[in-house]
Amino acid sequence: MDSAFAIADQDRYRDDSASLPNSIDMSHHLSSLARNRQSSALKDLYRYAARPGMIALAGGLPSPAIFPFLELSAEVYTQDALSITPATAQAGSPDAQDAQTMIKKPSFLSWLFGKKNTETITISKPPSSSSPLDINLNTLLQYSSAQGHPALQAFIREFVSKVYQPAFADWDVLLNVGSTMAWSHVVFMLLEPGDGVLYEEWSYPGAMNTASPLPTHKVSIKVDGEGLIPEDLNKVLEEWDEEKRGFRRPRVLYTVPTGQNPTGATMLAERKKIIYNICVKYDIIIVEDEPYYALYADPWKSRNHSTRFGARYADVEHYKDSKDTDEEFLKKLPPSYLKFDYQGRVIRMDTFSKTICPGSRLGWFTCGPLFTERLLRATEASTQAPSGLAQALVAKLLADTWKYDGYIRWLRGIKATYAMRRDWMCDLFESVFHLEFDQTLTLSPHIKWVTAYERTISGMGGLVMDEKKGYKSKKALVSFVPPTAGMFVWLAVHLSSHHKFAQIKREEGPDGVNKMLYELWTDLAESNVLISPGYFFDAQPGVPHEGTEDFGFFRLSFSSATHEEMESAIKTMYKVFVKFFQEK
Amino acid sequence: MDSAFAIADQDRYRDDSASLPNSIDMSHHLSSLARNRQSSALKDLYRYAARPGMIALAGGLPSPAIFPFLELSAEVYTQDALSITPATAQAGSPDAQDAQTMIKKPSFLSWLFGKKNTETITISKPPSSSSPLDINLNTLLQYSSAQGHPALQAFIREFVSKVYQPAFADWDVLLNVGSTMAWSHVVFMLLEPGDGVLYEEWSYPGAMNTASPLPTHKVSIKVDGEGLIPEDLNKVLEEWDEEKRGFRRPRVLYTVPTGQNPTGATMLAERKKIIYNICVKYDIIIVEDEPYYALYADPWKSRNHSTRFGARYADVEHYKDSKDTDEEFLKKLPPSYLKFDYQGRVIRMDTFSKTICPGSRLGWFTCGPLFTERLLRATEASTQAPSGLAQALVAKLLADTWKYDGYIRWLRGIKATYAMRRDWMCDLFESVFHLEFDQTLTLSPHIKWVTAYERTISGMGGLVMDEKKGYKSKKALVSFVPPTAGMFVWLAVHLSSHHKFAQIKREEGPDGVNKMLYELWTDLAESNVLISPGYFFDAQPGVPHEGTEDFGFFRLSFSSATHEEMESAIKTMYKVFVKFFQEK
């Protein structure tokens, strides 16, 4: 019943779909497990279930009268509780906000006039209408369709239609319990044991841990500061030698296009178009995992115009989101792969974990009808449906309270908060290290890498003080690309700045290089700074990362530390790095 | 961190565990997929994470300050809101209760003195203590351990320890998102494609749909009104011919011991012990799926002592739960397979779906440490953790509000409600049909089957009126065993009472017999009574059910219809049955 209403409903958002092509046949991509899944044998039953006057003794539904929850309520932020510009106003003023969180603090006067930044949502047990969109506990605490509550489906369809604008007509959405489960479903739907999966050369370990035990092989594609390098993807596929590799050419690409984990890189429209076309050519399914999509912000901008570096970085076009409309915000988001997907070969995975909270365990697929149908069957045979308690609260908040426009406003606040935190980290690097552009970096020449050096002594022409040698040339310590999205700064450590590096590399090879990095990681941890070693994210450990063999990598998260903690951590890192690279 | 606390905590409930053996090695049962799952590579990270003063830039946790839920509250029933005896008192009296639901209705006076049957629970955002058991939104809306919240784990461990009393020492519990997902995890943990699974010959289609696509073969074991028949299990395993069957002897038994779906049968201690020993002999893992466990009640008792049948059925020992203590309630529950499990070969799956609500999507495993560890790895790579919003509400209700004793009291109310509903259905059969014991039934001779006939004419020696023939002998229509648990009555339709049955069986074989049943099912549906055809539940369609070939089966649910609906349905069924068996 739910699904019938839902399908009728979605057409509201597809006014222009008449001119779009339908997805092409992708059934050859289904695994044997996915093919084996049976549709429900209960069709006759459903046909009769809708009859007026029918007495149903067929199901096994518990009696909703004795569910112990009679009413849920929640105090929630209003859609505009988060500011969209970092704190400038003083406490008590109408624009006051918390400097750490960007949460607006209503003045006493505005509070008095009812302008609070919170409101209360309430979900009652009895239905308030017979509409399938009605959000009530009788429905949401009961067993339900694996597709999710119709109100949440409708909300998500409107969002997908307006924000992603898929290029094929017959797309649909399907709720899931978060992107790890979503990816697990995709793995079992598309892959046979022994198949290969294409990953960014540094990729999310959670995704790889889900697919690898099947078992599947990891095939890494080179990345730079703008994500996957199309030439490398094409080369790997073009030159695929099944005999040499021991498995057929991969058919599935797993990618995090925006604020990639761990590199922080974001793929923009042009690159996506090229990659999409390569995937058409080699019949690859693109699995687009986008937890950080709404966290895409304008580039970091130096606040210190007195240095040559700062003056140049300040030139970066820097838009003020506060002056923008919701439409401008949306227009600046990089297009989803769905926007180029005229064949239905993209499976997009979204999650509310970063925009609402991870504890919602709610996300959704957007893809063609063959895939949503098979994923629905897989959902029925596993999670059944996301938690109704979570759906009740999130549906009430999004579909009934904030609605589409309110959610867009909320996303702008979320985006602004993480942009502020990204700025904290980059600003701290600038104030603690000596930064310079590094055009010569072998990492990826056309990306604006920033290299952090030891601090030079003013007026001494790039020299630094050395305990043993007196003055010496400053050393490159780490390089990074200030990210435009996500939660991470990916640090490339200049291991070659270490005086013993050449010797270790020659004598001990990659193992020795890794040992050096581990030593540096341990020094940091012993100094109370905990970061993630890059090898956690290595899609093909043991296979050299061409062009970056002389670097070690660390991932730094700017998502949750306070400014004070971050400052302390970056100062400590500076000291530990300088000491590590000192000749002893 | 969570897990460390949890492990320390669980020992509180294992005072006598010193005298129990640990589980034996079951690692040979793991599938290659389960073996391939990696433990987290982040051990070094965890070691440092607990250090005081550590600044963590390692994780990718979103900032909890900007989660939009600031406080949750819920109006919930008190632990004793449900009566434990069916309604007798009048409205307004101190003992008044809703006749349909057994929900107590406080009189105005008791309400005035604060004796309400509801209370409000509230979960705040900031932690109220540093204890890992503290239930707060900062923790529960964030990413969390896949093991679930420590307070819920502790609650469940106490419940398992006191109610199930496993016979091995090193058991543990692991939260999951409900038993379908739980079973899916078990399937992928234990089974290779092509393996067989032992099922009750009539089994839950959801479970079979989860395991079959792997693919796995279904091997059915005969059941009677008390569940699995040990002799048949032994025979199947003893006579296993791998060459003839085409796959190795099954190693996994899926069973619903209490209020089995669809047959309503309950396995008691003696039979479980025998089956456990057979499983030891053939090294079978017992997967005990127990959604209806707490719904185990005293046997149905006839209220009509004026008939021979009623007088005999009234003899059934009938305990009054209202006079019992919680301890008596627990003592009368059939022992879990865990109680006999001195080797750790039982994986028990529990769910809150029937005792709290399906929308909680919360359940748990109880099993040995090898299995909980591998299931935890599988959880990390799929659902990650049950919804924190659901955990917050259920943990607050169970672990902080009702607590162990309160939950036991609540379960007694749930049990009483479903027992009342079971009584409604059996009473209605008694008042609408003519019931007799049927000792001669080939279905299973030692079980008290009840056969429902056409109503006889008083004083006419078992004769009924027939439109064409005038008086004739009454016909057996359906047989059933009044269930002691669950939500279902399993009806065996006496197809052989149909005058064309012998001919159809001879000429058309099983297909013709199925067609007859489908015709009867359609007649019922067309008369607005929707029930489940037995073939939905057939573990091995096409393989004859020895001894019951002349019967067709229907499953009737008594879990959610009102008494009025049920009465109307059973009266309609009577008419449709009588008409169906009439010679036309």
UniProtKB/TrEMBL annotation, chains A, B:
Its cofactor is pyridoxal 5'-phosphate. It comes from the Eukaryota. Residues 139-431 form the Aminotransferase class I/classII large domain. The keyword Transferase applies. SUPFAM superfamilies: PLP-dependent transferases. GO terms for biological process: alpha-amino acid metabolic process. Keywords: Aminotransferase, Pyridoxal phosphate, Transferase. Pfam families: Aminotran_1_2. One of its GO terms (molecular function) is pyridoxal phosphate binding. Belongs to the class-I pyridoxal-phosphate-dependent aminotransferase family. This is Aminotransferase class I/classII large domain-containing protein. It comes from Naganishia liquefaciens. The lineage of its organism: Eukaryota, Fungi, Dikarya, Basidiomycota, Agaricomycotina.
